[in-house]
């Protein structure tokens, strides 16, 4: 490949078309390389599939599917602009997939950008009677694939490093961007439904390729949705309180209310529970239990750990002499068999009835997965 | 004392079998299997285990603690996430016949009322264990579950929503 060159000009130069086109190509190539290598391809804004329920005169229901206006960047760095809402073509789908699509299958909808040469407009030659220059339209197609074809998007060819938008890619640089999926009713040759993500795969949105993201205002945020959508999760690195990492949900103003914080001093503060790997040491559970119940294990300790000998239990039960029943109960038995409580009191008629006890259960967890001492 | 209790209940009927409170995490209910083990032992007035209720028939719920859950756990029922003491007059009765099991409520029920029955007979590994589920239809006071009972007697525990359970050893088949 040749070294990158850019046109330069001097005073009084007679500009040839190649000089001007070179300026444009240089700028377009630079922008495409930026989009390609510093961003990931996908939808930048809009381009949602909007199904609208309709019915044929015979009464059969179908949907007309519109793609909302928006912009995307393909894998070559080409910007694809859909300036106004566009309706998906039944005829094109029938041509591509008709007759071989089951009604329950979800077929992908792709956006493809490409350039189209327009011939010079006749009669606009100007004073010097020079033919007006041709124009290139940066256009697009809304097309379809077979069910499952969206899985092949990752295998699309990549342009060479120096290439501009769409350049160097086979098939004229027609790289696909997934917008969503449609179902097809072959009997009436109409769309049955449209969804962005009917199963696991959904539209790709443009992202950033970066090894460092640096904030300028002292606060860096990652949001799952725009800041105006309340109740969506976000992560914040903030200089507040001497430097903290937050996770929480944002409100309608984009403010994040943290439920999990890590301070600069290493303290972890969580509103909820911390689960997962159990810290070695003694874990305690206590309370009241009635006859027959198995005592609950401390949070994070599992029966599997007990069975494996990683956690050793120490259980202590004491008949509960409270003032609930008036006179103190007559205790027939109050023991723990493993975690199971056997606690029986005698009622006024001499019957054995379920009793209650205070319990303390200690789980001694070893650090190495073996038996604790 | 914590104000939340975890109750182990018969899933179909809401009858409480046991109550546990937790000082550290009162509102978090362990699973029914964790509180019951494989089977929960039902004991009679003599303190002997009569039948065992399998964990899959049980549920564990966190409910506001009331004294009766500690005083008389097995005379309480849970409905709408609250536990209450069942009046002792509302006691289930069971009649075992060779052609079926009849479970009767204390009176006519106003809505379809779930019934859950455990029958056991024999000893050791060959002990027979049956679970019967049915509903007493609205307007009726009992329901008969048609089956063939071949043993001369069974240990039985019968639960009806809103009723004190019946637990009886060696109930004869007539």
Q: How many β strands of chain B by DSSP?
A: 14
Q: SSE string of chain B, helix = H, strand = E?
A: EEHEEEHEEEEEEEEE
Shape of chain B: globular
Order of helices and strands of chain A: HEEEEEEEHEEHEEEEEEEEEHEEEEE
The unreliable regions of chain A are 369-373
End-to-end Cα distance of chain A, whole Å, is 70 Å
Helical region count of chain A? 4
Largest interface: A-B, 32 and 35 residues
* Spatial strand sequence of the major β-sheet of chain A: 13-14-15-16-17
Give the mean pLDDT of chain A: 86
In whole angstroms, the N-to-C terminal distance of chain B is 49 Å
| Helicity level of chain A | 10-25%
Largest sheet of chain B: 4 strands, antiparallel
Low-confidence stretches of chain B: none
Summarize the structure.
The complex is a heterodimer of chains A (373) and B (174). In chain A, 10% of the residues lie in helices and 39% in strands.
Supply the key terms.
heterodimer, A: 373 residues, mainly beta, 3 domains, 5-stranded antiparallel beta sheet, 10% helix, elongated, B: 174 residues, Immunoglobulin-like, 4-stranded antiparallel beta sheet, 3-stranded antiparallel beta sheet, 2 helices, 49% strand, globular
What does this structure look like?
The complex is a heterodimer of chains A (373) and B (174). By secondary structure, chain A is mainly beta. Chain A has three domains: 191 residues, no CATH class; 59 residues, no CATH class; 85 residues, no CATH class. In chain A, 10% of the residues lie in helices and 39% in strands. Chain A contains four helices and 23 strands. A five-stranded antiparallel beta sheet of chain A has the order 13-14-15-16-17, with no helix packed on it. Chain A has a four-stranded antiparallel beta sheet with strand order 9-8-10-11. The relative contact order of chain A is 0.11. The C terminus of chain A is likely disordered. By secondary structure, chain B is mainly beta. Chain B has two domains: 82 residues, no CATH class; 80 residues, Immunoglobulin-like, CATH 2.60.40. Chain B contains two helices and 14 strands, in the order ββαβββαβββββββββ. Chain B has a four-stranded antiparallel beta sheet, with no helix packed on it. Chain B has a three-stranded antiparallel beta sheet with strand order 2-1-5. In chain B, β8 and β9 form a beta hairpin. The mean pLDDT of chain B is 91.
